[in-house]
Amino acid sequence: MKHIVAALALGVSVYACLWTSVAYAQTNELAAWEEIEARGVNQDVYFHAWGGDPQINRYIQWVAEQVKQQYQITLHHVKLTDTGEAVSRVLAEKSASNDNNGQVDLVWINGENFAAMAKHQLLAPNWVAQLPNFALTDPDNNPAMTRDFGVPTQGMEAPWGKAALTFYYDSLLTQTPPQTLQQLSLWAEQHPGRFSYPKPPDFLAMSFLKYALIALNNSQPDAIKNRLYQPASAQSQALLLPALWQYLDDLHPNLWRKGQHFMSSGLALRRLMGDGELALAFTFSAAEVPAAVARFDLPESIRSYRMRDGSLSNIHFIAIPYNAAHTNSAKLVVNFLLSPKAQAKKQQANVWGDTSVIALSQLPAKQQKWFEPPALSHPSANIANQDISPALSEPHPSWTKVIATQWLQRYGVMR
Q1: Which pLDDT tens digit goes with each residue over 21-47?
Q2: Do residues 4 and 10 lie in contact, with contact meaning Cβ atoms separated by under 8 Å?
Q3: pTM of the complete model beyond 0.85
Q4: Hey, which bits of 263-350 come out as E strands?
Q5: DSSP per residue, 128-140
């Protein structure tokens, strides 16, 4: 009996120690966050983010208003045409030994830009777990929250949103849009000048080209097509890229302006759809389409869908450079970006339509309702086929530069 009592006492003692350890850790985390809050208030934060979409710009302005009210932080949206501009700025600062007073506090980033900044040690490490709202993404059960194009983020960037390649067409100009990449080539031949894509290295252009590269090599043996998710070696390029160039050689003569000119951005692509010059286009923000219809930027005859052979999908992130001048303030902004309030608003189609990274199971029922989509005034522009379109993972970041460089060598001269 004494042994049983002793064992029970030992069990209670161990349990008490574990409980005490957990409570101690939680107390320390709370104290650490309170210190970040105390140091981060009443500062400026320079957020370097793509500025090519009015909807997104307005959302970031709303965020600025919120963090001003909550933390007296003045958030400056530094509008970029290419995220590489921010990467180059931080790299130049590091070369000049500016290790504490950088001009970039936050950067909207993913893929090759993240890989480049991580490679050159340009990002602050191990800060994401400090954010109370990061737990709402349920990272333990959702590994995509800690991997960027397959590369572990190692606490250097926080997830911000999810997106997938979505096509849309004018139903008055075509009733049977292509459902696969191969059908797209035939459709373009039957509808010359009615489809195009932006010029690389534009993000939307690269999304289309990576989707094409994956789809065109889908019938390859696993040992070959899996090389897309590894660094792009010379051998891998020789095995995988010829199918893409052959496809584009056949497609380009049937594009808008016979493939002799490519627009500069996804916004320009959408404008051509609004003007009726194109009958088919695509976006990486599905809710952009019904929102543009509601604003009369696109006609009511627009319909959205996803290709049956797959939709390129990814998560985009927010990172803090290693030399940010206002690190604590930047963390407060990112934590707000991950809040249910900010994520639910961002997901609204008439605001941005960017899919939330929050796992709704982590929220109380009342907050889960914030994410329920409202009835849209133009439901016909919503996505069709999304449930039968496989999600295609982004290739290794190194493929982006390889594709863009070789595309410009082949097709970029005199354009």
Answers
A1: 444 455 677 789 999 999 999 999 999
A2: no
A3: no
A4: 280-283, 302-305, 311-319
A5: GGG-GGGGGG-TT
